[in-house]
Amino acid sequence: MLQQLSPSAESATLENLSGILERQQAALLEAADHTRRLQAQLFALALHSGTHTHEGGPGVEEISDPEQVRDLMASVGAVARQQIRVIQPSAVARHLITDWLRDSCSDSPESVKVRTIHQSSLLQSARSLAYLESLSRRKVHVRVAPLLPFRLIVVDEAFGLVCPPDAMLLIREQALVRLLCRMFEFCWDDARDLHTALSADGAERPAGATAGGMDHLALSEQQLVILRLWAKGRHDAAIARELQVSPRTMRRMVSALLRRLKVSSRFEAGVVAARTPELLDCEEPSQPPA
């Protein structure tokens, strides 16, 4: 006959079973993570099996298959040995950066340096700002800039990934990779450290307010960019594309700028700018910290 367990014995049995299930789930998650890392390493090995262009490998390759794009980006952490440079990471790349850090830490005796440059407009979103701050806590070097050329990932000086909207360009020609590195450093020097950008009222620091006409205006960096692009004849739609914002956000930014200048039209804004030439000519007051 089956013996009926006492309530205390039954509770202890359930706790034991629960503990076993939790350990099994943890083991499965660890195995899945190990499999993912192994797949990334295998893909990286296949990627670099013919990287030398003089041996017949292509110097620039267009990749349009989404699965291959994802695999290529996931392999970045397994390939990197010194540093990863990123400009304006896509939504996929933003999720993968923490994986790159974990993969590189497990495979390299020294931690890989990760530097990222993001659009200043991300500072207007609480969720995006929280993400940037989390990267900073993970020792990622984060800077922001109002205008960026295109999405870019450069791994050491081994290869670069240029990411136009419809495909990805894998660049392994060394002269082009070095050029991409130089372009990144140019953008990096022109960008501002995340904490510097947040130091004034938790948002973008007012740009270059000096004695005279600019003191009472205290325009943000993005507002200055809009004003300068207006002066060059750009329309709002083109400016929105350059700032990577939606038309609705652009309209809101324009309204805020006109209110700040105490004018009601772009023509009047141009008059104010003409009377305050440093609005269009000023440079950043100081270089960001290295």
Automatic annotation (TrEMBL):
* Ranges for domain HTH luxR-type: 212-277
State the Gene3D superfamilies in the record.
Winged helix-like DNA-binding domain superfamily/Winged helix DNA-binding domain
Q: Which GO terms describe its molecular function?
A: DNA binding
Note one Pfam family from the annotation.
Answer: GerE
Top-rank taxon, per record: Bacteria
Biological processes annotated in GO: regulation of DNA-templated transcription
Family annotation (PANTHER family): HTH-TYPE TRANSCRIPTIONAL REGULATOR TRMBL2
Q: Would you tell me the protein name for this molecule?
A: Pau32
The species this protein was found in: Streptomyces paulus
